[in-house]
């Protein structure tokens, strides 16, 4: 716990269990719920407890969705910190050290004295019920985050999420949560570039068209063919317009499950808006949605229940749409931002010990990567020369690394592989309705004897950014305890079964690739996995 906060929250490292909000929240300004709000719950096995919280992620996920915790639940700060810390292996507890190096003296600088980092978007800068001291802490926290993660170019969600965290915990604990959210081994919680955020934002319209088509048709009609005026600012419905108790319950789920929750809540908002007929007589649909939310008598649980009823809204489907949208998003800021961190890929890999790729071949792969990852250094986390050919060992070494590069060198000295946007651990996600997962950022490639990249077919079609409809175009990754496969539809692009000593490769519908090995079958000489590492981080995912 930071020294600046110790007097407010008890002993260092402790959470306040006698009061829900920190002392830098104007509790008198927090509006009462307009619906029948359940009382603050006493500890029970299925809810947060003073003595500890379950480590079972499935139970946590269920509790977050259906817990019905009041906005002033006294253990919410502990719950949020526990959820965030469980999603990463990053080193936490560094706020004090970094803060002391940045700020001299005991007094907090005023909010006006601190320039907000460049990743902050003033249009998304919500402080909610923080008082003057809380706003100072928020500004200081954002500056520390900018110092810790200079690779973050544009992240409009950072400020509102940081503000909400500070309602329930001190600056040090909020910093831990933000670091964990940015380095989560499981789900994506924030985009780091303007292109990434724009893809996240614009994908919502595609999801409404697919999962709530009647709502989309209504918006087209009410906006005279221009529904973008509604969709452009949909995230502000959640961050700005929802009553505060509703927003807090959404954040319970968001911290547990990532950005997908925002999509589900957005779909819920539109569905309930349509059902309420709040649009009748309105000439300004965005304004009527805002009024509907700000005056709603529906409980947070009602919004969440409706949101989680949309079937088929999987991470792979969301990822496929986002990838399509990213193709048409031009972003000069990302290019400028990438100059903030220049690494020598060639020299970094030399030190990592790969025996498959040369520095020149690695440079070729790096030229194919999404910009946000091409600015990181490579990190070898698995090699069959050291770790053997067991699939179990493969999973132990890199199951939750994301993204990764799989490299294969055959007995015939052929070199090929895949860039995989999703971790192999996704196979265990209870939300998975099919054996396949992953997104359209993934691709196959060969390096020897031929250099060629095979991108997702959804990126090279003629359907614009509307999203693919052919199911076989979504078969990116498949995994079992004794099998890993990449690409599908017709055949597997690459598959290894039993262990990593041998495999097959054929043309698949997902990537429309030629077989990566001349004979279609191959014996592995070496198998490696490379992941992405910040220059200041220890080895590992």
Describe the secondary structure blueprint for this structure.
Elements: H1 6-9, H2 57-66, H3 76-85, H4 95-102, H5 132-148, H6 158-166, H7 171-182, H8 194-211, H9 213-222, H10 228-231, H11 234-241, H12 244-257, H13 260-276, H14 285-294, H15 300-307, H16 315-328, H17 332-337, H18 345-352, H19 359-368, H20 371-374, E1 377-383, H21 384-387, H22 391-398, E2 404-410, E3 415-420, E4 436-437, E5 443-448, E6 452-455, E7 477-480, E8 483-486, E9 494-497, E10 502-504, E11 521-533
Antiparallel strand pairs: 1-11, 2-3, 2-11, 3-5, 4-7, 5-6, 7-8, 8-9, 10-11
Helix pairs in contact: 2-12, 3-7, 4-5, 5-6, 5-7, 6-7, 8-9, 8-16, 11-13, 12-13, 12-15, 13-15, 18-19
Question: Keyphrases for this structure?
Answer:
541 residues; alpha+beta; seven-stranded antiparallel β-sheet; four-stranded antiparallel β-sheet; 22 helices; 39% helix; 11% strand; globular
What is shown here, in short?
By secondary structure, this protein is an alpha+beta fold. It has helices at residues 6-9, 57-66, 76-85, 95-102, 132-148, 158-166, 171-182, 194-211, 213-222, 228-231, 234-241, 244-257, 260-276, 285-294, 300-307, 315-328, 332-337, 345-352, 359-368, 371-374, 384-387, 391-398, and strands at residues 377-383, 404-410, 415-420, 436-437, 443-448, 452-455, 477-480, 483-486, 494-497, 502-504, 521-533. Mean pLDDT is 82; it is low at 1-18, 39-51, 330-350 and 461-469.
């Amino acid at each position: 716990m930071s020294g600046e906060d110790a007097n407010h929250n008890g002993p260092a490292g402790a959470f306040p269990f006698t009061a829900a909000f920190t002392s830098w929240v104007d509790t008198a300004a927090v509006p009462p719920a307009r619906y029948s709000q359940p009382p603050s719950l006493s500890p029970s096995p299925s809810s947060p407890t003073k003595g500890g919280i379950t480590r079972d992620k499935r139970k946590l996920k269920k509790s977050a969705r259906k817990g019905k915790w009041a906005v002033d639940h006294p253990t919410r700060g502990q719950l949020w910190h526990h959820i965030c810390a469980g999603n990463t292996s990053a080193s936490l507890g560094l706020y004090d050290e970094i803060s002391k190096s940045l700020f001299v003296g005991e007094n907090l600088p005023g909010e006006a004295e601190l320039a907000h980092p460049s990743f902050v978007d003033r249009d998304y800068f919500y402080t909610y019920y923080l008082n003057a001291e809380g706003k100072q802490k928020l500004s200081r926290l954002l500056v520390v985050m900018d110092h810790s993660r200079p690779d973050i170019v544009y992240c409009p969600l950072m400020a509102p999420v940081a503000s909400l965290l500070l309602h329930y915990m001190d600056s040090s604990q909020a910093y831990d949560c933000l670091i964990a959210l940015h380095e989560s081994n499981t789900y994506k919680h924030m985009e780091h570039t303007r292109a990434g955020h724009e893809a996240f934002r614009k994908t919502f319209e595609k999801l409404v068209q697919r999962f709530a088509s009647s709502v989309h048709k209504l918006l087209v009609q009410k906006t005279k063919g221009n529904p973008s005026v509604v969709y452009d600012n949909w995230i502000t419905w959640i961050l700005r317009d929802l009553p505060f108790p509703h927003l807090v319950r959404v954040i319970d789920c968001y911290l547990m499950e990532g950005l997908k929750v925002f999509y589900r809540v957005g779909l819920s908002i539109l569905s309930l808006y349509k059902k309420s007929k709040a649009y009748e007589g309105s000439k300004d649909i965005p304004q009527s949605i805002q009024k509907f939310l700000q005056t709603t008598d529906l409980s947070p649980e009602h919004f969440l229940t409706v949101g989680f009823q949309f079937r088929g809204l999987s991470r792979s489907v969301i990822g496929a749409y986002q990838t399509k949208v990213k193709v048409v998003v031009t972003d000069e800021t990302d290019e400028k931002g990438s100059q903030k961190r220049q690494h020598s890929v060639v020299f970094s890999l030399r030190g990592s010990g790969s025996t498959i790729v040369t520095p020149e071949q690695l440079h070729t792969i790096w030229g194919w990567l999404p910009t946000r990852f091409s600015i990181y250094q490579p990190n070898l986390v698995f090699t069959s020369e050291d770790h053997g050919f067991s699939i179990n060992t493969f999973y132990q070494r890199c199951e939750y690394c994301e993204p990764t590069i799989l490299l294969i060198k055959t007995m015939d000295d052929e070199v090929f592989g895949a860039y995989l946007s999703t971790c192999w651990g996704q196979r265990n996600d209870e939300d998975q309705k099919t054996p396949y997962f992953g997104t359209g950022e993934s691709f196959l490639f060969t390096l020897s004897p031929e250099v060629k990249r095979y991108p997702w077919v959804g990126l090279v079609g003629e359907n614009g950014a509307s999203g693919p409809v052919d199911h076989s175009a979504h078969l990116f990754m498949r995994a079992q305890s004794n099998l890993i496969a990449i690409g599908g539809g017709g055949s597997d692009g690459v598959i290894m079964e039993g262990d990593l000593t041998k495999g097959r490769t054929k043309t698949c519908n997902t990537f429309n690739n030629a077989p990566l090995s001349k004979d279609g079958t191959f014996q592995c000489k070496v198998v490696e996995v490379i992941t992405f590492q910040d220059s200041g981080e220890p080895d590992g995912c």
